[in-house]
From TrEMBL:
This is IS1 family transposase.
Length: 124
């Protein structure tokens, strides 16, 4: 996950660093939490970091998300994913829906979700 963090930051803030809540670009550094840089928006006063509003924010197993996505793309069943990653089957089910909902909220339909996941899996 730590190798992925710079790529996520680069992708999310490629045009400029802006508040993830209101979009304002007037932000300042605001300490660190769990080795992640925090930012404070000067406009709305809310804080955020590189992982704010991501499906795996506050996950107990952030290192498993990439493995999970790869298995999901390859059509591995939830029980097999659960056994392989040593997570409860209800967690595997919950993660699948978090991923699908996150992609759906960005306008992807089911077919385009599959194409998108296949495309990003080649970069993982």
């Amino acid at each position: 996950m730590e190798k992925l963090l710079p790529k996520i930051k680069e992708s999310r803030f490629s045009s400029s660093l802006g508040c993830l809540h209101c979009g304002n670009t007037a932000v300042k550094r605001n300490g660190k939490y769990r080795s992640r840089q925090r930012y404070l928006c000067k406009d709305c006063g809310k804080t955020f970091n590189d992982m704010t509003n991501m499906p795996f924010t506050d996950s107990r197993y952030p290192e498993n998300w990439i493995k999970y996505i790869k298995m999901m793309i390859n059509g591995v069943t939830l029980p097999k994913i659960s056994d392989s990653l040593k997570i409860h089957i209800s967690t595997a089910f919950y993660w699948r829906h978090k991923i699908l909902n996150a992609l759906g909220s960005h306008g992807f339909n089911q077919l385009s979700v599959i194409h998108y996941l296949l495309r990003i899996s080649k970069n993982l």
